[in-house]
Structures are given as C-alpha cells and as structure tokens.
Amino acid sequence: MNIWVFAQEAAGVPTSGTLELLTKARSLVADGGHVTAFVGGDATAIAASLGEHGATKVYATGDLGGKLPGVAVSAAMKAVIDGGDVPDLIVFPQTTEGRDIIARLSVKLDRTALTNNTGISIEGATVSVTTPIFGGNTLVTTTFTGSGPFLATFRPKSFAAESAGGAAAEVVAAPVPELGATGAAAVTAVHVEESTGPKLDEAAIVVSGGRGLGEAAKYEMVETLAKLLKGAPGASRAIVDAGWVPYSYQVGQTGKVVKPTVYIAAGISGATQHMVGMKGAKNIIAINKDKEAPIFGIADLGIVGDVHKVLPKLIEALQGR
Amino acid sequence: MNVIVCVKQIPDPAAPGALDPSTNTLKRDGKLILDESDSYGVEMALQLVDKAGGGEVSLVSMAPNGEVSGLRTALAMGAAKGILVSDPALQGSDALTTAKVLAAAIQRLGGADLIIAATESSDGYTGTVPEQIAEVLGLPSVTFAKALTITDGKLDAQRQTEEGYDDVTCPLPAVVSVTAGVVEPRYPSFKGIMAAKSKPVETVTAADLGVTPVGWAGASQSITNVGQAEARTAGTIVEDDGEGFAQIVSYLENLKVI
Ligand SMILES: Cc1cc2nc3c(=O)[nH]c(=O)nc-3n(C[C@H](O)[C@H](O)[C@H](O)COP(=O)(O)OP(=O)(O)OC[C@H]3O[C@@H](n4cnc5c(N)ncnc54)[C@H](O)[C@@H]3O)c2cc1C
Ligand SMILES: Nc1ncnc2c1ncn2[C@@H]1O[C@H](COP(=O)(O)O)[C@@H](O)[C@H]1O
C-alpha cells in the first residue's frame, strides 16, 4: 500500500493536520509500501519535518503564483499519476484546500471522494473510512470499491501526531501543468486575521460564546474570560454568520475541531454541527438559561442560568485571584 | 447576466435525521425543503442579476420522487425557472455522480455567466459538489466566498481561509460556492409565492441528460457498517442561584487549570 498525504504548511511548519495524517499513514504502510507527502508550494522549509513524521519522498509543485490550490495541485497530482507513480490512496486534511483539491482530482481520476472522515482501516487492498454523522453519535463505515487511487479527507485531530525520527525526505519537483481556462482564478491579496494568545485549535482552554450572548458587544466577556484562563476564545456559527466575530473563531463541523482540557460554552444551544467540533474536549462546562438545551446532554458541569449574570461574576472571581 | 444556482432539497433539519435500514443512506422520503445553505446562493444570484440590470436566475436540483417544494421556494424568492433531475436510478449516487448530473443539467440550460452553489449542504455536507461541477464543466472556480461582486465580466470575492480570507479575482464564466451569511436571504412575498406556481420547472431523468451509470451502479463505494460512537453522558447540572460561578471556579480548581 502506497499512500500520498497532501501536506500543508503554515508559518514555516507543517500544519498539525498534516503531521497527524503522516503519522497515521506511516502506521498503515508498516508492512510494506511507503508514504509520500505532496506539497502545493515550496517544500524546502518543511521537508525535514515531513521526513521526520514518515514521508520518504516529497513531491512539491513549487510556488503556485497566486493560482488556487484546488485546480493547480490536483493537476500536478494528476500529472505525476499519469507519469506512472500511482498511489493506492491519497489522504487530505479536511481544510478548504484539501476539499478543493480532492474534488477536482476526483473528477480527473473519475474516482469517488469521501470527506469528513475520522477513522481509516486497511485490510489487504481494501480501504474503509469512518465518518461521524448526527453530531458524532453514529459512525458510518464506507469501503472503497473498484480500483484506486482511493481519495479521502480527514477531520483535524482524528489521529495523534508523532515523530518517527525519520531522515529528511527526498524532494522531487511536481510542476503544475498548463491549466487553461480552469486556472483563471487568481489570489490578489492574503488577509490573516491576527489573534493574540494561544491558537483556538491548540489551546488547553477554550471559551466559546453563542447567540445567547444577545449582542456583539457582549462577546467581550468571552474574550476576557478566555484571557484570564490563558485560553482561546471561540464561537458558534450563529454569531459568526451574524458578523460578531470572524470565521476563524468558529468551532464545529464547518469550523475548527478543538480538543481542549476545558471547553466552556456560554449561550450555545449545542446543535449537532457545533458538538462535532468540541465533544472531544476532556471537560465541558455549559452555561445556558434553557435547562433543555442539548449542550447539557454532554456537559460535565452545567449551569442553568443567564450568561449576563454568571459570566461577570466568574470574571470578577478570577480577576481577584 | 444569467446565473444558475444549484439548490438542494432536503428533509427538514428540525426533524431528527434517520438512516434507511435497508440502504444505510439518509432517509429522504416525505416533504423536502430548500436547504437553508442554498437560500444564500439564491439571494446572492438575485442581487447580482438585479445589479447587472438584466438577465435571470435559473435553478438546477437533483432530488427523489419528483420533489419540487424546495424549488418552488427559490422560485418564490424570484428565480425564473428550473430543471429538476429526478429518477429512481439516482438513489445511492455519490457526490461525483451528483456533480456530473448537475453539470449536465446546467448545460441543458445553456450554461450561464455564473454558477452558484453552497460550500456544503446541510444534510450530506460532502462539500465537494461545487468544485466537482466546475471541473466537469472545465470552468475556473472560487470556493468559500463570503463576499462577492461582479464587474466587467469578472468576479471579485473574499475567499474564506483557515487563517482569514484571500481576495480572489476570476473571469466569467465561473463556479462560486458561497458561505452561509454571505447575504441575508429574503422571505418570499405572497405575490412571489403565487407567481412561483406557474414558473416552469422541467423534470428530466439522468438518462435524458445522458449521464450513466448513476446511483449505486455509479458509486465506487459501499457502506459496510453503521455503529454507535462512544456516548458522552451529562454530569452535574445545577440551577444558578447567584452562586453558579463559584461552582465553575471550584471545578476549574479541581482540574488544577487555575
Ligand atoms: C451545514 C451546516 C454546518 C454548520 N456548521 C456549524 C459549525 O461549524 N459550528 C456551529 O456552531 N454551528 C454550525 N451550524 C449551525 C448550527 O446548526 C446552529 O445553528 C448553531 O450552532 C447555533 O448557534 P448558537 O448555539 O449560538 O445559537 P442558538 O441555537 O440560537 O442557541 C442560543 C442558546 O443561547 C441560550 N440563551 C439565550 N439567552 C441566554 C442567556 N441570557 N443566558 C444563557 N443562555 C442564553 C438559548 O437557550 C439557546 O440555547 C451549521 C449548520 C449547518 C446547516
Ligand atoms: N442534489 C443536489 N441538487 C442541487 N444542488 C446540489 C445537490 N447536491 C449538492 N448540491 C449543491 O452543492 C452544494 C454542496 O453540496 P455537498 O457537496 O453535498 O455538501 C449544495 O449546497 C448545493 O448547492
């Protein structure tokens, strides 16, 4: 079994999702086969780390020159496959880029693409992946039929990332071929929404606010509390859509997956799409004025109360320490 | 300017989802409604056509049992016409087949300057269909657009990323997937609802569109197991009597995080 991992970088290092997939792929090819990383960009900075986590070879497209990765990287992958290096399986982090590339590639290869997975198993040449549905209560296992390359994306934090102490991987150029009309979209500016403190998906404590805060200005309570606890502020999609906070704050199915030691949900109902992003937290504390709110079904400590009363007192108590 | 919007019709998400035990796929019987995710696309399309000062919004949808109620909602909002692809053979289709079918329906409408879909549907959320449609049609695409404007035959979008957003420009024709919240969808007016009843919806089969194989035959995947995840159980739930905050403080103390 030969596996490709679509590898992404942020701020000069591979993303955690990339390292998680490399680690998992390494264990899957243990009895023969190898792991190859595929980078949509320049791989110089990250090749050593990719090697350390299990990649023995790294394909790199080189700078995409403002082209969107979906079109460009899928075309580069297809060119390598046409050139004779055909993997059995290609795995992608469930990110905007991962999703776009797998979609384009699935059409080019005429193969099904399975997204939103959290597990994978391989028996002989049979590959099965697992997807949580209904807020993560039900797990559906799907087996690829027909011939590879099989294509799948995995949600962040599905696997642990561990270094194998491998050597730096050999970097092989996989240039983007001529794209024609499909390659006409171009990035003209990149905006990074700066946030201070720990990153939402890495923080040990996450404090999230939802529509129950009532108005945008009240989100400040969430930020203050997060800061006091040296954690990161998060949000439900309701208040991201309402424009109270940027999308990068969103926790859930279409936002970030968090697995902190403590997750505090303030004024969040606990929709299934929110829960899939946070039910992996070790401890969940919920504050909601509705005692029937679904969030209480998974909370270790639930306070049935008004966020406008509980949060200010909690903040005051912590400030006094 | 002509815009085609892909609109999925789904079971009401307020009703609890269930799997059909014989096929292990989501149950899609009963009345279907317009996926809220697609109501943003419909609104965006109506606004863009309005701004362009001419043209119309058309719809494509693939759904079982000749279901049109979700399409009627989008027509009531102001779309002009639609194509429904409905065919028992489509049962079990994967996202790739769905994209091929929708792309063929788009071609049957003669294409458009812009094709809009949502970043993901509320029930299936594979999140790949729009980009797959673009590849089938050989078009450029901009996914995850949280803002969209059209000027002089090109589009400018803010494309949501993990860290923030990118400004992206792209010539038309193109496919765009829009996020929830990109615009505020209008409520259909009474006049709109009445007018929608007589707007044309053509119903076709996959074979009419020349797309084969579809359904289970076209999908190179099979569901091999459905199980329950380890459930999380509720802990202590207390009513706030003014001292609720103190419970949180002592809980955090016990965990030694403060
Ligand atoms: C395809 C799709 C993807 C989605 N992805 C995500 C996602 O990634 N993340 C996400 O979060 N959602 C997602 N959603 C949306 C999700 O379904 C919910 O709509 C959303 O999570 C609700 O946010 P909320 O809990 O803040 O708001 P609501 O559901 O409106 O809940 C507000 C809660 O606040 C409580 N409340 C009100 N006032 C007070 C008060 N004064 N004090 C205390 N409590 C109060 C209420 O009792 C209520 O429980 C998605 C939906 C779809 C269809
Ligand atoms: N059966 C369908 N009919 C019409 N549009 C669809 C259908 N399936 C997917 N789409 C479009 O593609 C988007 C993403 O769907 P998905 O890839 O299933 O998450 C949806 O929000 C729709 O805009």
Overview of this structure, please?
The complex is a heterodimer of chains A (321) and B (258). With 321 residues, chain A is an alpha/beta fold. Chain A has two domains: 181 residues, Rossmann fold (3-Layer(aba) Sandwich); 115 residues, Rossmann fold. Helices cover 25% and strands 27% of the residues of chain A. Chain A is built from eight helices and 18 strands. In chain A, helix 2 links the parallel strand 4 and strand 5. In chain A, 58% of the residues are buried. Chain B is 29% helix and 28% strand. Chain B has a nine-stranded mixed sheet with strand order 9-8-7-10-6-1-4-5-11, with helices on both faces. Chain B is an alpha/beta fold. In chain B, strand 8 and strand 9 form a beta hairpin. Chain B has eight helices and 13 strands. In chain B, helix 2 packs across helix 5 and helix 3 packs across helix 4. Chains A and B meet through helix 3, helix 4, strand 7, strand 9 and strand 10 of A and helix 3, helix 4, strand 7, strand 9 and strand 12 of B. Flavin-adenine dinucleotide (FAD) sits at the interface of chains A and B.
